[in-house]
Amino acid sequence: MRLLLIEDDDRIAGPLTEGLGRYGFTVDHVRTGAAGLADAAASPDLVLLDLGLPDMDGLDVCRSLRARSAVPIIMITARGEEADRIVGLELGADDYLAKPFGVRELIARIRAVARRAGAPAYPSAGQQAGSAPEADQPVTGAQQLGPLALNRRTREVHLDGREVALTPREFDLLAHLADDPGTVYSRRQIMDTVWDPHFFGPTKTLDAHVAALRRKLGDPGWITTARGVGFRLTVPGDHAGPEGAG
Q: Which CATH number among 1.10.580.10, 1.10.10.10, 3.40.50.300, 2.40.40.20 corresponds to the domain 142-233?
């Protein structure tokens, strides 16, 4: 899925482009409204539009885009007032995200807008940058992985019919790994998604949560380590390989 990012602040655009790229999105970045309107002629799949642009108001860019195209538009801006949100939506924006925000939330909104607009296939949470895109229907509701049942709607986990009590962060970590069982998620990707790309705590917090999940699931084989890369979710007994659970 090709995104057009119209954002003049490189401190935001750089990490955002990199973060979205990790999930398989192609991001074209421009810094002005005029450049954005010119690049939009190449028919991106979705536009991420900042309102505070140096040459023109982002609301005017939105109005111009909508007058000539049905491309989905998500406004990303520091303007959090209700009036700005209402005006943006009335001008034709599909969604509105106030700064600061995490990559995880933005990707969720991109997926939701793309589904509503019938946009082309977009990457799943587990798809690595550079891999072939696929039509993705994000896993919702109950998911069965061997004896493990995970329900995202109720945020419940059962193992062999017994409920497993998880903290909110432990559940988010397990659900993220379960998006694509067997896929190795890098440590940075997990931190960006389950925590936040601007999380500045110790990275060992991820190891602590993985260790807690392994204890609660009763078998360290549920979450295996790809040394030097990250972690994957596997059903114990269904996997083989040198990495192991350590």
A: 1.10.10.10
